[in-house]
Design brief:
2,3-Dihydroxybiphenyl 1,2-Dioxygenase, domain 1; 2 domains; 8-stranded mixed beta barrel; 8-stranded mixed sheet; 8 helices; 16 strands; globular
């Protein structure tokens, strides 16, 4: 069974400053991370205790089409992709390709921070669709990781001491059984626990001891079905871990905690994440990791 080390999860929007302000208003200030080497997108980030982080990504020029996650970014679709860390990107790409799964890359990428530091890395994407739409894309730094992911003091590390990392990536899928079989094939995981879930209005597949939850809408009505129709298979929600859910709930604007998938989860008020009420971001916190 292959263990995944989540590097980061991404939320896409049409404009970066409003999303930054929204997350700050929701108690999760983020630090500007700079423009990507593609010259089209830029990002901000919030780093968690384990070194994983949340990326907010948008075009430098509003309305410009992004080369990755273009639909979610243009439509303020929120969750759009997720990445795992690797120390052998070429080896991981070869391993997945040998399974008959489409692989794109490795390809170089980079970002120039506002302080002039250039962070460089390589990525490889697996499966169909956009990077990290279903299977995570893999990333390997070409230089010191702290060039890309600042730690210690500063807004980017504002979640340190409050949020411990990415606990769950919830992926909206059209074919639950097919998506589950793909994850089992690529990562040698046991069969998931499958259940009907009222909260998401979906049939859920949860892989024990992993951060992956698959959610297939039970009908053509509801937010998840509409999201799947618009974006295809892709992340629909993220749940971040915290060492003390009760204490974190006093600091963040969250709904009362509910029991979901054998854990307590509190969801951040979506209206606080974007005053324009356009960003379709579902973000929760839990004390189960």
């Amino acid at each position: 069974m292959k263990i995944l080390r989540i590097d980061h999860v991404a939320i896409g929007g049409s404009e970066l400053p409003p999303i930054q302000r929204g997350f700050a208003a929701a108690g999760l200030p983020v630090q500007y991370g700079g423009a990507h080497a593609n010259g089209i997108t830029h990002m901000a980030l919030c780093v968690f205790d384990d070194g994983s982080y949340l990326e907010l990504i948008a075009p430098l020029v509003p309305g410009q089409r992004a080369p990755v996650w273009p639909e979610q970014i243009a439509c303020d679709g929120g969750p759009c992709g997720w990445a795992i860390q690797t120390d052998d990107l070429a080896g991981e790409a070869a391993r997945v390709a040998a399974l008959g799964v489409p692989v794109v890359g490795p390809h170089p990428n980079g970002r120039r921070r506002s302080d002039g530091v250039l962070a460089e890395w390589e990525t490889a994407s697996f499966g169909e669709g956009q990077p990290g739409a279903l299977l995570p894309f893999a990333i390997q730094d070409c230089d010191a990781r702290h060039h890309r992911v600042p730690t210690g003091n500063g807004d980017a590390a504002a979640a340190e001491g409050l949020l411990t990392g990415v606990s769950l990536v919830v992926l909206g899928v059209s074919d639950l059984d097919g998506a589950a079989a793909l994850f089992r094939r690529v990562y040698d995981w046991p069969a998931p626990r499958v259940l009907d879930d009222a909260l998401f209005g979906a049939r859920i597949a949860e892989f024990p001891d992993t951060p992956v939850v698959l959610a297939a809408p039970r009908s053509t009505a509801g937010w998840l079905a509409a999201r799947n129709a618009q974006f295809g298979d892709s992340p629909c929600a993220y749940v971040f871990g915290t060492g003390d859910l009760d204490a974190a709930s006093k600091r963040l604007p969250v709904t009362p905690a509910v029991h979901w998938l054998n854990r307590r989860v509190a969801w951040i008020d979506r209206q606080r994440l974007d005053a324009r009420q356009r960003l379709d971001a579902r973000v929760g916190i839990t004390d189960a990791m």
